[in-house]
Design goal:
The chain contains 4 helices and no strands. It has a domain at 39-102. The chain starts with 10 loop residues before the first helix and ends with a helix. The protein has 102 residues and is mainly α. Helix content is 75%, strand content 0%. It has helices at 11-21, 23-35, 42-56, 65-101. The radius of gyration is 17 Å and the shape is elongated. Helix 1 (11-21) packs across helix 4 (65-101).
């Protein structure tokens, strides 16, 4: 019988919790992007927009109950991973900005 990995040990769920812990940084990043002080990568912008549209709009598999929930869950998980990566880029950019000021 195969061994099942517990959910709390899965790396993707840990990434989601890490993003929740760093939510203040994420909101600062979103605010900086909105104000034009930080330039998010074009790929990240496109993926976040497309992912949110996919989850919100009912044109996917939402008419099939379990499949609709699973595909939306996978998209949300991928969005969290992308936001985590972009938040790390933002933190590195802020550190480099502060080093330049010194």
């Amino acid at each position: 019988m195969s061994r099942v990995t517990p959910l709390r040990k899965a790396g993707n769920i840990q990434a989601g919790f890490q993003l929740i812990k760093n939510r203040k940084t994420m909101w600062c990043m979103i605010k900086a992007v909105w104000q034009g002080k930080y330039k998010m990568s074009g790929l990240s912008k496109w993926l976040l927009f497309a992912g949110l549209a996919y989850v919100i709009l009912p044109f996917d598999f939402d008419w099939v109950p379990i499949l609709g929930w699973l595909d939306d869950g996978v998209i949300i998980l991928l969005l969290i991973k992308r936001l985590q990566t972009e938040t790390h880029r933002y933190v590195r950019a802020k550190v480099m900005e502060r080093k330049g000021e010194s």
